[in-house]
Amino acid sequence: MSNKKFCQSCGYPMSKDKAGGGTEADGTISKKYCSMCYQDGKFLTPPEVTNASQMQTFCIKEMKADGMNGLFAWLATRGIPKLERWK
């Protein structure tokens, strides 16, 4: 498994993930997915999030709820369709 600079689900910088990444089913740290997206080998996104567009909408909503400007949230999520999980 390669070491990615950004979460391959949401695009969050892996270097900023306080947990160092999500966890695989065996408890090891994931090198692909952040701790906000992936725990115990499973994605944490709601079951209705099944494609990149839905993930972008979900992330923008979460970022705005955390106080981020909507335009910046949109800019930060533009790369989601290019991430490994959504190809």
Write structural notes for this entry.
With 87 residues, the protein is mainly alpha-helical. It folds into two domains: 1-44, no CATH class; 45-81, no CATH class. It contains two helices and two strands. It has helices at residues 52-65, 70-77, and strands at residues 38-39, 42-43. Strands 1-2 form a two-stranded antiparallel sheet. Helix 1 runs antiparallel to helix 2. The longest helix has 14 residues, at 52-65.
The number of E-state strands comes to 2
In DSSP terms (H or I, runs of 4 or more residues), the helix count works out at 2
Largest sheet: 2 strands, antiparallel
Write the element-wise H/E pattern from the N-terminal end onward: EEHH
- The general outline is globular
User: Whole-number radius of gyration?
Assistant: 12 Å
The domain count comes to: 2
Strand order of the largest sheet: 1-2
Average pLDDT taken over every residue: 95
Please specify the SSE layout and strand pairing.
Elements: E1 38-39, E2 42-43, H1 52-65, H2 70-77
Antiparallel strand pairs: 1-2
Helix pairs in contact: 1-2
Summarize the structure.
The two termini are 17 Å apart.
Give a quick set of tags describing it.
single chain, two-stranded antiparallel sheet, 2 domains, 2 strands, mainly alpha, globular, 87 residues, 2 helices
